[in-house]
Amino acid sequence: MTDRKKTIKTILLILLIPLVLEVFFFNFRFWESLFFKHSVTFTAGTSSNEIVIGNMDAAVKNIRVDCSGATDAPVVHILMTVTDEANTGYELTETEVIPGISESSYLRIFTDGNAKEIKMAFDPDEVPDAGKINIGLNRIRPFNLHFGRFFFLLVIAVLIFIFRPGSAVYKMPLYPSEQKLSDRNKIYILSFAASFICLWLFIVMAFNLDIWPYYNAGHVDAIYNYQADALLDGHVNLNFDPPKYLSEMENPYDYNARFAMYQKTGEAFKLDFAYFNGQYFSYYGIVPTLLFYLPFIALTGIPLNNSIPIILLGAVFIAFSLMLLYKAAKRFYKDISLGLFFILSTVFIFGTGAFYCAQTPCVYSVAFIAAIAFTVVALYLWLGASDKHFANAKAPLSKVKLVIGAVVMGLAIGSRPVFGMYLFLAFPLFYQEIKEKLFFSKKGLANTACVMLPLMAIGAGLLYFNKLRFGSFFDFGNTYNLSDMDLNHRDPGVERLWLGFFEYLFQPLQITGKFPHVASIFDYKNHATDYLGYMFFDPVYGGYFALCPVCLAIVFLRKCKAELKDMKSYYFAVCSLIFALALLILDIEKTGITLRYQMDFAMFTAMAAVLVLIALFRMSARSSYDKAFKILLTVVILLTAVMVFNNLFIMLADNKIRPLILVNPKLYYSLKYLLFTLR
User: For the whole model, what pTM was predicted?
Assistant: First the structure.
């Protein structure tokens, strides 16, 4: 077969598979309904919020519920009770009809034998008069050839074809000649980056919320704006007066006692604000305020929506993640293919957990994505500072990159102080240069100053700001947070660690039979543990390795020791995991179990995992077993696909912080009936 015929055959196959799925799988209920008995005699009696379908003895397969003229509500919830040959008054799971989505108006039901009576109860707030609803039984469902769904399936088919284990993309070298990118590869990489950034933008905008209601309500989501307002007014405390009872309480950080005072007095306190010496402060890192919120308010006079910095910083994070992986691959794996570069980049980008920020564009996510983005930029610059020296031992380090990298790392720490742990990656990163006396010596005085002085300058500013707010250079104010837990009296407990390790790392996902088929294991009300002590829970859907199984590659760290040492990255990987463990313990002890705090240690883990994967691919390429590389590649591709699916699919969960069903119900139900049409 000629190359042209093979190409045409491939294109036709890629087009045919989504078309077949669209016509037969996603329209299965249409084909099925053609064989229903369509002449069913029944009577329908109505009350204010109930319809009773009776006087029938027939096999009822579906019910058409037309609410178009009966309500203005965006969603109509229905509770059905069925009497059939086996059951009397059997209550079914609550379902819904979306007036704007025709597919939702067909309810596929399953009775035991013929149905005798079906009662449908409606929420009176959604359907004031049930008599205006039109009912039909065993109707033929419309055939719906949905272009958007077909395009989505086509994209998936293309991605599967491109990244399948036998694809030619794994035979295309990232550096075709002279260790330089070809114009073709530049286009591919730019397209890859643009795709990720577009996905990031789409998700942020899907969950976007207007800042004005939060700003007007004195909500924590606007706290960066409040801090900017305060700084523009010339002081560091926020422009709010705390209720008097806080200063009179023995312990204002006791949530239950504080809430009791609120109920008694009717004066609300500001949740997640820092309270110190009778005033409110923001304990969040000052950098996002200075870079985004303060300039915006100074120029426009209006508050800045949190989605804007999250979009911008997300784009920076994605772009520099690819640049960091490109630089690492060039140094550690010169024979890497273009396809494998894309796979490892995906592992790193999703392995950091950063897409949580896109799915939850709130005040907490601003701090996390700022710290993550700035850390990636700093590591890219620092790794690049030794490029010439790595190629030529006599070449000096780039002092410009050392300085800028230190400044950007300082910005990361100023965004989220615990990311100061990532600063210590400089030691394993420059391990070889430190051995060569290019740092911490008379010979390396200039290099040391290029890193230390910018960090010391930024650190001095951050510590002075602490002094202005909380009276101590080393007090970042987190213990003064009016949250659900009192961090001032939080005792360290070894007993909590085992629960925390399991939940943060290994807790399996909870898959259910009801859309969206994923549910939180722990949330604000569900604390399913035997630990008899206080533990804070945000919605958690699974441990880090359940969401990102490909990062379990770190278990092969010891196996790859010799290879990693040859890559001069063994100590970097080991230190990354040690620092990850330190932050994990800190989060368990000081915060509890919450999905967003996985991002504190996730990037350390993802970096170590990528280095181990590179070592494994290098070793398998030299293996005497011919299929070793392909088997490893297949496993990594599959686990990476699972990781991407997990991290994106949990955004549909109903019990997450600001779930899509509440933030954007139109999109939520559109996705439900676009992709899950077998109801």
Answer: 0.93
